[in-house]
Amino acid sequence: MDFKRGERVNLNFDTGAVEKLDEEGEDAPQMPAYPSFVGDILERGPSTAHPPVAPSLKPNGNGFPAHKKRVPRVSAFKQQRAAKEQQAAAAALKSQDAQKARSALGFDQDQERRTIDEENQQTLAGMSDAEIEQERQELMSSLSPALLQKLLMRSNIDQGSNEQDFDSVPSGAAVQPATDDAKAEPETKPTSTKKVSFATPEPEHEAPKTNTTSTTTPEDAADSIHFPTPPQPPDLDPNDPSFLKSLHEKYFPTLPYDPSTLSWMSPIDPSDTKSAYHPSQTGFNASDLRFDFTGALLAPSVARAIPSDRGLHHHADAPEAAGYTIPELSVTARSQVAAQRCMAYQTLGRILYRLGQGEFGVERGKQNTDGPVQVARNPEVEEKESDEEEDEDVGSAMAGGLWTCIEEGRVIETLTEEANKTKGHLTARTFAQEALWNWRRGGGRKRQAI
């Protein structure tokens, strides 16, 4: 049986026969029904194609194409500022319009007042003195005496303060229709007011009140008001023996006075010998010895003679003596202020160099013997000790005491910690490294084996 390529067949495993499949048979598998997403394809007729056209350039006289005009871009900030300026200008324009409207309204009111005044002047000009007096009497009789009294208190009729002249109105308008009777009106006006009488007499104590109120000004009233001021203490004199007490009374009168808190400001008493570094002392501890910034030892007499502007008096112990002790420098070396640490590192490094070189004496080792007692000298034999041996003993004790102060203050450990820092104040680290270098260059403490 011949089969076409790609034709479906049915293989029967029982008989081993190959049979053709009926295309319209019931055994043919049905295709799954999927919704049709694609509609019918419609072909449209081609439109008329337009051939490409070369761009037309505007002719230029110089032979080069014209440059493109770039419109400058306005930032958002400038746009907001321009909008605010426009709003401010619109608000100012509205305010000007409102002012113009108010001024126009005021002009109309003034014009109306001038018109009424002109009419009144013309009416008075056409009336005789008898008619004017009759109208005045009728007006006075129609008003109550109390109201007339109040009106007279508010204005001064004799001086004519209630009258107002309009300069802008030409004088000819009122003068032309005037007659001889009208010209005599100002002369008869004061005399007519004196003839008016009232049932209730005007109180005399009210008249001076109007004059006082008109002459009194707020400035005069303000000058008349004063408050009592406490007496001011006199100016302070630094050379006054009671300067500290006067200082407390002037600036801190409400605080309790304690002289001990201001003792550091008082001058030094030269007769006071209680200081630990006074020249009259016969002996000093190693912790009391003072050094300058170069690491040199300062004698007590020299320390008291150094002026205070050298920067060597910034300490509390023995304030009259200049210089720093090793315990003070060891504390300053741990300060949080970098400038103070730098000063302490540099001074300690120089002291360590001088101490290692033996400038302050050479430390001797202790000698131990097998006997129960170490005999230093024979008391039965009189021996004369030389000055050199005494100086050596003093130098040895001084050097040992200074090295002990350095160890107790942990000076070497502080310098090493600062020199090994990887971050922080660079100048302080440099001075610490320099101090350690001076310590090693001087030789350090020379210990002898026991």
TrEMBL record:
InterPro entries: RPAP1/Rba50, RPAP1_C, RPAP1_N. It comes from the Eukaryota. Residues 22-68, 85-114, 160-236, 363-396 are annotated as: Disordered. GO terms for biological process: transcription by RNA polymerase II. Residues 85-98 have a biased composition (Low complexity). Residues 382-394 have a biased composition (Acidic residues). Signal peptide: none annotated. Residues 115-158 form the RPAP1 N-terminal domain. Pfam families: RPAP1_C, RPAP1_N. Residues 288-355 form the RPAP1 C-terminal domain. Belongs to the RPAP1 family. This is Transcription factor Rba50. It comes from Clathrospora elynae. The lineage of its organism: Eukaryota, Fungi, Dikarya, Ascomycota, Pezizomycotina.
